[in-house]
Amino acid sequence: MNALSVLSDAWFFFSRNLFSIARLCLPLLLLEAICQALLAAQLGENANPAYAILLGALFYPLYAAPLILFLHARSHGQQADPGPLLAAALQLWPRFALLVGLSTLAIMLGLSLFIVPGIWIMVRLAFAELFLVLHQAPPLRALQNSFAMTEGRFLPIFTCLACVLVPLWLLNWWTLPERTDSLPWVLQQTASGFAQLLAVVVAFRLFMLLEPEPAAEPRDSD
User: Which residues contact 195 (CB under 8 A, 6 or more apart)?
Assistant: First the structure.
């Protein structure tokens, strides 16, 4: 598995479908950023960061699930209208939100153990969302399936995701306005969240490469 090829394919798809992805995800990303700003204004500077994490966990499935379904449809040459994708995402939302909560808790627990375990867990759970959305796997089964698929493949998956996320996280940190500047903060967070959707495209591309082909059904002989 060539990391450069995966990143190139993901960027090509993301750039070619930029308008469609923006139409599908950008309104929800903007709404999430507005709610985060309102929450910060309501709770003040000393608010528990768990509230912001919880709000993100509630919103993330609403745009990540449609994006995954969009990627799947377009990769199979099918039409992907926003309405049906968002309707399907709403049906998946309870299980997806639970999955995000479990993943977040696991990653935060790992990060509390000197960071490296958190990075390891994050990579091992990289495909859990895809199993839940594409294969309708329950949250715990999706986590187990992701662990199984990433077994022995940590380094190439980590390389692909790190090449996308680390520069975007640094850019987000460098350009982040003060919370008191509400409008610039909301716009910057919306743009940063949209850019980080590229990581979902990279994970989907990796998933498609690593998922075994379904066995062909035997034909009846005359």
Answer: 168, 171
The rounded percent of the chain whose pLDDT value lies above 90 is: 59
| 67 residue type, one letter | L
Decide: 142 and 128 in contact? Cβ < 8 Å: yes
pLDDT of amino acid 195: 95
Cβ count within 10 A of residue 140: 12
| pLDDT > 70 in the chain, percent | 92
With CA atoms as reference, report the closest residue to 47 among 63, 61, 36, 58: 36
**Does residue 126 contact residue 94 with C-beta atoms inside 8 Å?**
no
CB-facing half-sphere around the CA of 70: CA atoms within 13 A: 27
* CB distance 64 to 37 below 8 Å: no
Distance of alpha carbon 198 from alpha carbon 63, whole angstroms: 13
Q: What is the model's pLDDT at position 216?
A: 41
pTM equals 0.90
User: In this predicted model, what pLDDT tens digit does every residue of 56-113 receive, in sequence order?
Assistant: 889 999 999 999 999 999 988 887 788 889 999 899 999 999 999 888 888 888 777 7
Find the helix or strand (DSSP H, E) in which 31 lies.
helix 18-43
Contact predicate 208/13, CB 8 Å? no
* 3-class secondary structure, 86: helix
Provide the 10 A C-beta neighbour count for residue 128. 28
